[in-house]
Amino acid sequence: MKTTLKNNRECLRTCIGCRQVKNKRELVRLTCTHEEIVEIDLTGKKQGRGMYLCPVESCWRRSLEKGRLEYASRVKLGDDNRQSLLFYSRGFLKK
After folding, report:
1. Residue ranges per structural domain of the chain
2. Which of 12, 24, 43, 84 has the most C-beta neighbours closer than 10 Å?
3. CB 23 within 8 A of CB 11
């Protein structure tokens, strides 16, 4: 019988808003699709360039205002894409 050992290491990621290193499960993943649209990836399995943000509105606002999200995604965000991300941050995230 073959036994496999699981790595008990945590998957750590950096929030692009506040630059804090946290566990991957504590952050919200965003992906940049091949249509150059940044989407929220709640499953964590979508294809595309992945970026992580804390589930706090201030991190989302900071990443959008200072251009950190555009820099990390390597895509110029459109106004409609920016507004949809801000709407998500206002409605579902912590203050």
Report:
1. 12-92
2. 84
3. yes
